[in-house]
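Attaching the record inline, Q. Sequence:
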Amino acid sequence: MVAEFWDSWVPCVTHGEPFAVVVNGDVIEGVHHRATSQISHNLEDQCQIAYDVFAPILDRCDGRFFMIRGTPAHVGEQGVYEERLAKQLGAIPNEEASSRAMSCGRRSAATAWPTSTTTSAPRPVPSTRRRP
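Structure, as predicted:
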């Protein structure tokens, strides 16, 4: 199913044009809320699994790879493991980031550490409107 997505669907909808891949945060599960459902509570294991999932995608997007920082519950207050993973994967850094905004808990599209490889963005609020 994954191969069909990348080999058939993506080329079809992009009409063969270049595209970017954006990983929308919480790339690792972390250890939170006393959850026991993780494959491993070891954050190194979680990072290796995430790397193994995303590494094959890098060639397909020709380096146009972005990561948005996840929530503190999953990736920790500073997102250290997610940050390191973004660097390992070669995510495009957010050079205009502001560490002060992140430390104050505000989340916006332009907040992350200076020269960071992750960006923080607000989470979309699900619509409660029923679709026909």
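The chain has one domain: 20-31+38-120. DSSP finds five helices and three strands in the chain.

More tomorrow.
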